[in-house]
Here is the input.
Amino acid sequence: MLTRRHFAALAGTTALAAPMLARGQAQARWKPDKPITIYNPFAAGGVTDVHIRMLGETVSKVLGQQVIVDIKAGAAGTLAPAMLLNTKPDGQTLACMSINSLRYPHYQKTNWDPLKDFTYISGLSGYTMGIVVKSTAPWQTLEELIAAGKKEPDKYNFGTSGIGGTGQLMMIEVEQATGARFTHVPYKGGAEWMQALLSEQVHFLADAAQWAPFVDNGQCRILAMATEQRLEKYKDVPTLIERGVNVVGQSPYGIVGPKGMPPEIVDSIYLAFKEAMDEPKVNEYLAKFLQLPWYKNPAEYRAFAEKYYVDVKPLLIKAGLAQG
Here is the structure.
């Protein structure tokens, strides 16, 4: 699983950034001649959806055309980029790619290859994960939840953003480490699984911090964070590692286009998103959900994808989701 340490190290890479930025600034920027469509892999109203729309406001000003966010939820968050296969590499149609697109082909036959069929453009941000219950739930600690999952296997269910996603992988490792068993209920995105928890359709969540505002207002309670260290904001909440489960989950996402996009178009789009990512209101929004900007230029984003695609396979095999 992508750890916070790996995430920070990858985010800190700067050697490749200067040539790309310099080339983009030296040339006249490419300008689209019609609105740009971005396919979003997650449900409307979720953190990713709002984030992309906020970025799109600045991108549209920089490039001079409206940015349209089109929801294409499904296939564990991989449908959106897959829809680029039949689009022209002209910069008019893009997609948000989640980390799932680098996992999915290992355990599900696809008609696309994540390393051959896309142009990597810009990293955007990444999710911070945790295990969360409604404040009225009977479990006050992770140990109590684990004990319930051992006493009555599969009785209690949990929501995530999809099959094979970071949340499910995290829980597979929790189950393997503790002997507890729970039932996985996948949703299209955070807005859906958050509502499912509040309406008690699921017993707990194992996913990104769309739950943070609900923890802050007292509706939910965090049992454990899937981070390497405790967060300052929730300094009284232990990590999974502290509870004997060596699991850290954080999954980045970014913008990709169809394969074969001309460099000048890629540069222009990358620079527009970089400018948008520096907007204070964007980062204030991300902070509500414990997210940070994930700065990646095209070369860095591709290098990350190529490495992660190889590194993640052993974990998927261990989880029983992929064949050796």
